[in-house]
Amino acid sequence: MSTPERDWRALSRLLDTVAGAAGIMGALVLGLAVVSWEAHRIALERDIARSSAAREEAIRYYLTNMFRASVAASSRGSEATTAKAMLDLSAQRVLREYRNEPYLAGKVVETLSDLYGGSCREGGGNSEMA
To answer: Secondary structure of the chain: what % helix, strand, coil (to 5)?
Structure first.
């Protein structure tokens, strides 16, 4: 075998090795990109779920407090509190206590207004949220 032929075979083997290594590196980079994209997507979904959970917790908290206040007022001998009055007081409390968290305040007031809309259809009347 002549020297140029031997050199050509060595170069061919080297190129095959380099091409294989480049293919493996490309696959690893592509896999890393896919995993990173999925991690980003999952983080966004997690943030949305946490936000939704915080919103639901705030709604439950205010609805529970609203009815507890009504029961406490009724047990002290005052007049029975109407649903509309409870919703009005709750809306005022939400706006006061969630002054620094406008997104959550808006979601709670939105839920209270939905409840108020249902009570207006049943009984009518005026309110601050109307």
So the answer is: 85, 0, 15
Tokens of 16: 């095959």
pTM for the model: 0.48
Q: Residue 52 burial by CB count (10 A; 0-12/13-18/19+): exposed, middle or buried?
A: exposed
Token pair in block for residue 56 = 């639901």
Residues 89-119 pLDDT 10s: 777 777 787 788 777 777 777 777 777 776 5
Number of CB atoms found within 10 A of residue 66's CB: 21
The ranges assigned to domains in the chain are 3-123
Cα–Cα distance, 65 to 72 (Å, whole number): 10
